[in-house]
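Subgroup meeting minutes
Present: P.N., E.W., G.H.
Scribe: E.W.

1. P.N. recapped why we're keeping a running log of single-chain structure predictions: easier to compare across weeks, and new members can see raw inputs and outputs side by side.
2. G.H. added today's entry (294 aa).
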Amino acid sequence: IFDDQSIQMFFNELLTLYSGDVVDDNVKQFKEYSCAQHQAYYSGAYLSYQEYWLRKMNGFRYTELIPDRNSSIDNFKKTNFILINKEQYSFATQFAANKNMSLSSLILSAWMLVLSYFSSQNQVSAGLRVTNRMSEFKRTMGCFLEKIILIIEINERISLGEYLILFEAEYNKTLENSFYPFYLLTQEYKQDKLFSILFNYMIIDNNPISNGDITLIPYKYEPKILNSKYTFNFRIFDDKSKVSCSLKYKDSLYSDKYTQRMFALFRMIIDNMLDNTEITIENIFKKQEMVEYD
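Output recorded in log:
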């Protein structure tokens, strides 16, 4: 089982070997990472992370979107749409960089505002999948994916520009403390009481890799339609030219019209971030209400 970074390392090393060059074999194995994680827990190295999460979870409020239907048949449905098209991609990437953000955190910040609007909560949370690689394991192959919970306070009176600054600061704190194993957090709080909304950002590079003598063509990732334990499973696919989205959700609770409203607000927030960061969150929500009313 590998994460995306491991797959890229594998391809690069394979091409190096085919070129007749030597691959550096002084690389730590994944079992060494597991041992280091185990040792860190029993040595007390996780105490600072634990303190952060105890503070963060104090007064925690579970985020649940208000359903617009109720069916006894518990099925899942999937819908796709383009969030950032090819014409917007370069500008959006540069805009995020100017804000000292990645494109993924910019999109995530917009998604948290969508959750605030549809839950009517000023504190919103969602589960994330992140890659936890300590510096000494940067070249180790394996699956370093871990779940974490992101909790964001939303102040509707501030501008989008102010919100982005606050969001990025809190997001970075969460990532800095993401080395605390998620299973330890779930010992205090049951996982289904932490979040029912999962956000997953994936960079999909389908471009062939070549050294002149051999060309590797990556397998095109096609997500399967499967049941999910999450009410909303939101996936972002960044192929370095556009950003597309896939939302898997319980259609026993949420209608197509509901998810279309979500996507409309999502796009509106992204467009305003790229065009007018002086607008307040409150005014964006009002614009959405006017669109829905019409």
